Amino acid sequence: MKRTLFLTCLIVLTFAFEASALRSMYVNGFASILGDETAENNLLSYAQTNGIEKLLLYDLHIVNSSHNLSNVSSNQILADFISKAKTNYGVLSVGAVAENAWFFTNVINTYNNSRTNATDKFDVYNLEFEYWGDSAVGPGGYYCNTYLGSTEYPCSNDGAFKFVLSILDDMRSLAHNNSHPITTEAYLGWPTTAQAEELGDHLDELLLHAYVANPNTSFSYAKDRLIDFANGTPGLDVSIIFSSEPNFMQNWLLSNSMSAAEDIFTIDWMNASSAWTNNINLTGFTYFAYSFNENVTLSTGVQDVANNVMVYPNPVKNTLYIENLNNVKSIMVYNNMGQLLMETKAEEIDFTQFNKGLYFLKMDTDKGVETKKILKN
């Protein structure tokens, strides 16, 4: 009886993690992609094929210099790209990456406020400020010369950390005062235990790097930092960053897949069986970066199960339509905690009964089980 109960719980926990996991990707070189229809579609097709649901865009300062993102006419080119990603390619959210509060306030947030359609807007404000790098924040370093030297914060690790907290607070203030829901997050490398305890209260989600050449070492590489965050800010959302650069995981990915790497980390996470793992929400995995990913074959196992089942619209506001159900035995709707909400075989599902958020359709077919992620607006 105990063994059966344990296995049942393990299956439920595994599905709950897989159901809530989100795959994200940093997009480098975005300034040269935007406006080039072929390059845009190649990027978005790659994201769709590989189940990438969040795009984090670099180079927006370059885009701004060419297209003035504060102006509703000149920023249309960016709005068209974001809308296309969300409505045609299954991207659930698009994030803006920047390194200072001024840019978020005067460019990104101003851009969002200039757009009336939610599908045109950024959904994530992502901070990348590597305060833990002593050479970058010390006297003569990039962050010291560019930012810290003209502020009240000293050119040191501690001064840079406090400066980062002030940026994150400004970002959260922008998000809280925005009619469009915004998630604030930051890329983190090597915070101290004390810094980890403080950081969680200043953002919604953190992206923690696990830059290894083989995912078999990824959990042990990130474990101590995860424990610090779990103990410091229970309930914090965390996405693990894998790097597809040649000196990290690219060679491994040439003969394996993203989902295989994620499964290795997840199994190690579950086998840890420690109380601290219950104090942190592992939301998914993020990949750095597009130019290193695009030439790697990344079979993910998230494609349709040869049934040509069509599910639309996604995101959905009212009714979700499902076509080609001939080989589908049942459809189960789960929330992002892995809880079963309903089971049906209908061609239409009324989503007005559900709150905004992420949901999952688990379809039992003649040729296997297929899970589709659905965003309710």
UniProtKB/TrEMBL annotation:
Residues 311-374 form the Secretion system C-terminal sorting domain. It holds the Pfam family Por_Secre_tail. Keywords: Signal. This is T9SS type A sorting domain-containing protein. It comes from Algibacter miyuki.
